[in-house]
């Protein structure tokens, strides 16, 4: 069946694979939408476990939008974009920090800290940049979504 045979507007409804756009008409809100939002607003650590292609990323994107509408700063990192076996621990943690810094509009500050703290392990630098840069410069809550972990 070709898309041209579909009723007007149906091309926006059917999406094959990947995260649904924020305004997608085919997204079905679930109990998880409210549960995740409520838990994050209370400052709880959350994780969403499910099989592949079950809407976890779409859930995160929608939750981020709702959090940001309430003034909460959010970062979304897709681990698959950082790399796996082909990167060193130094590169992996630096990539993670760069992505979070970019999302929080603190990329240059993150990189400055990263370079200055080269004498400590990559993991220690990663948690240091979150504590010493992000939390020191941002006011209010910050939520970091890690996808494809």
How would you describe the overall organization of this protein?
The chain has 149 residues and is mostly helical. It is 44% helix and 8% strand. The chain has a two-stranded parallel ribbon. Helix 1 (31-41) packs across helix 2 (56-69). Residues 1-8 have low confidence and may be disordered.
Give a brief outline of the structure.
The chain is mainly α. The protein is 44% helix and 8% strand. It has helices at residues 31-41, 56-69, 89-103, 107-116, 122-137, and strands spanning 73-78, 142-147.
Low-confidence stretches: 1-8
Distance between the termini: 36 Å
Number of strands: 2
The share of residues in extended strands comes to: 5-15%
Rg value: 18 Å
Task: List the total number of helices.
Answer: 5
Strand order of the largest sheet: 1-2
The largest pleated sheet is described as: 2 strands, parallel
Silhouette: globular
SS-based class: mainly alpha
**String of helices and strands:** HHEHHHE
**Which percent bin holds the helix content?**
40-55%
By oligomeric state, this entry counts as single chain
Whole-number mean pLDDT = 83
Outline the secondary-structure elements:
Blueprint: H1 31-41, H2 56-69, E1 73-78, H3 89-103, H4 107-116, H5 122-137, E2 142-147
Parallel strand pairs: 1-2
Helix pairs in contact: 1-2, 3-4, 3-5, 4-5
Characteristic key phrases:
disordered N terminus, globular, mainly alpha, 149 residues, 2 strands
């Amino acid at each position: 069946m070709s898309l041209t045979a579909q009723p007007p507007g149906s091309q926006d409804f059917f999406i094959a694979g990947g995260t649904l756009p924020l305004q997608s008409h085919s997204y079905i809100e679930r109990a998880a939408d409210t549960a995740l939002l409520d838990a994050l607003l209370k400052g709880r650590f959350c994780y969403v476990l499910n099989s592949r292609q079950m809407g976890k990323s779409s859930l995160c994107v929608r939750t981020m939008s709702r959090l940001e509408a309430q003034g909460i700063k959010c970062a979304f990192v897709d681990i698959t974009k950082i790399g796996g076996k082909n990167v060193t621990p130094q590169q992996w943690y630096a990539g993670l920090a760069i992505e979070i810094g970019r999302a929080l509009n603190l990329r240059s500050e993150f990189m400055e800290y990263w370079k200055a703290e080269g004498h400590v392990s990559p993991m220690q630098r990663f948690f240091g940049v979150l504590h010493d840069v992000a939390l020191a410069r941002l006011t209010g809550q910050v939520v970091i979504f890690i996808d494809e972990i």
